[in-house]
Amino acid sequence: MGFFFWGLLMGRMYAAGPDLPRLPVLVTTHPYFTRYDSVRFLRLEEALRRNPDSVFFIDLSRAQLTYLPEDLFRFKNLKGLRLRHNPDLKVEEALRLLARQLPQLEYLDLSWNRIRVLPPTIGELRGLRYLDLSHNKYLRRVPVSLSDLPLEVFRCKRCYWLDIETLFVYLSAIPELRAIDLSYCQLFSLPWNAKDLKQVEALSLFGNLIVRLPPSMVEMENLRWLDLRRNPWIRAEQVLPILAEIPQLEVLLMSECDLREWLAVRGFPQLRILALQSNRLQKISPAICTYSNLEILLLGTVLLGFRDNQLEKLPACMHRLQRLRMLDVRANRLEVLPTWVWQLPNLEWADFSLNQITTFERYRGEARAPIQVLLLGGNAYTRLPDVICTIDELRVLDISGFYFHPASMKLKALPSCLGNLARLEVLRVRDQVISRVPRSVTTLTNLRTLDLADNLLKSLPSSIDGLSRLERLVLAANELTKLPASLKDLAHLRVLDLHFNPALTEEDLAILKEMAHLDTLDVRYLPLSAEFVRELRRSLPNTVVVFRPVEATVQNPPAWLQRRVLEEGRREGSAPARGVRPKRKRKGNPLAPPSGRRLMDEE
Q1: 226 - beta bridge partners?
Q2: CA-CA distances (angstroms) from residue 413 to 38, 381, 452, 536, 578?
Q3: Cβ atoms < 10 Å from Cβ of 115
Q4: Which of 95, 142, 227, 410 could anchor a disulfide with 401, C-beta 3.0 to 4.6 Å?
Q5: pTM of the full predicted structure?
Q6: Is 243 helix (H, G, I), strand (E, B) or coil?
């Protein structure tokens, strides 16, 4: 129930469209894993219509192949071949033909097949650089001829029964190997000969059962990218001292590892990206301030209700992270926003949304941080600090409230100094109790999205046409009584949301007929007649007018909702309405809507 509640809440608050950029998903796939995917993919029948010498990559996934088609070998310059989801493919014969007919092949994808033992003929593909054996869950072993290949990338994701020790012996003999993917292979540890993989730069152990790592990993002097996400049994006191000594490590991903504390481990001389999301963290050691090259620090939560971080404060020494560009502390338990946030000279993205922030530490002067995206939504502050208005580079500002907070824990007014943010492009102020928009906001000539939904607005400034580049205006669930005449002068406006403003009348909405440049107009649950809506749609032929009358949900509820009301009244002891035959109680949840077929029968 808790998962459902939090999922519903996040959909309510932060699932709105493209107006507000979310925290960018951290690139969890190393370039070595995808660099061949940039080549154009073609089906065989399409490739035959072109010049065969110009085709370099062919995708034969789900082709129900048993043997390779003869036409495939007409492409003498073929570099990549994808054979996914061909479970009946005779792999040994296919590899022999490929080695004989296409010796220049560099990319081979054999994932999602039923390979149990990789044939030794794989060693005859002397030019192979990328080999993907992922999702062959019954694969048990690979041949020794694998070590004869000039592989750069080896992927073996979800190969549960693979002999890892033998695999590492063969991989350590490949001098060109740069990236290994062993995600979801049920690994408890790495073989002790991991030190022989000195040439490897990227290692993915995502989704395993890693408990400890061999001390010999320190000798992997070229390792730059390590993915340990979703290893809930990992022992931080044994693993972190080893990782801290790897000299070239730049990216460390340890999200969803059930860590309760980031230990006082010094080192990580080259670390640039550290991901610790959804770890139940309660404390961060000040030792993290010694990672002087850190650029991205993720301490937030991936999915609310599942292994949430629980940080109540951050180390005061974090102002030493002079190279920090992105900071994510979303959905923790911070109550005070520290002043060092405004002092970091390279900070561009700061996400403090869904915390418990009620106050801001007092800060005098202008902000030094060139923040472009500042997300403060879902907190409990009642006043914004003036330092926010001094961030010259700010482009996205989210100061939305929390839907379930009382009015005493929400913003009642916007500061007039917001007009100083000349580069602001997105302003989101949802779920607050603001009754007036300051006139200074209309001077933001670069503003493209203005979201003021779920407030107490009764009117808009008459100078709203000053927002000359505005493209999206959301005014849903307010108390608007009229619209300014200058609204029709917003020539770049594409989306206008006015739904659930019951005080607006047809006379107030007459100016909408002159806004032919709109793409979407939302007038749901407004007291409008069907004739007025038809006339509005005729006046705006290129606009999608979304309308639903108030009576559709108030006076004529669906049948399953009527039955719910009756059953709730029966539980409280009240008699059913006169003329209504009591229904037999259904099995299961009585408040759940019935299936579509039963609903038609009962109606």
Answers
A1: 203, 252
A2: 50, 12, 12, 34, 50
A3: 22
A4: 410
A5: 0.85
A6: helix
